[in-house]
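Long-time lurker, first post.

We've been arguing in lab meeting about whether zinc ion would sit comfortably in this protein at all. Half the group thinks yes, half thinks no, and nobody has a model to point at. So I'm putting the question to the forum: if I give you the sequence and the SMILES, can you give me back a predicted structure of the complex? Inputs are below. Any interpretation is welcome too.
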Amino acid sequence: MPTTGEKPGPGIYACRDCGERVILDDPDDTLPPCPECDGTDYD
Ligand SMILES: [Zn+2]
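Top reply:
Settle the argument with this. Predicted structure of the protein with zinc ion, as tokens:
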């Protein structure tokens, strides 16, 4: 389970709390806090 601050690689990650999706398109991108609820856990 990826969390904020990790670099899980390119993909689409859904916030566990609200379902907001964050798209990472670069292997060096760091997963941000959820833009909707500031959650830090993603599926
Ligand atoms: Zn959220």
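For your lab meeting: The two ends are 6 Å apart (CA to CA). The chain is about 0% helix and 20% strand. Whichever side wins, do check it experimentally.
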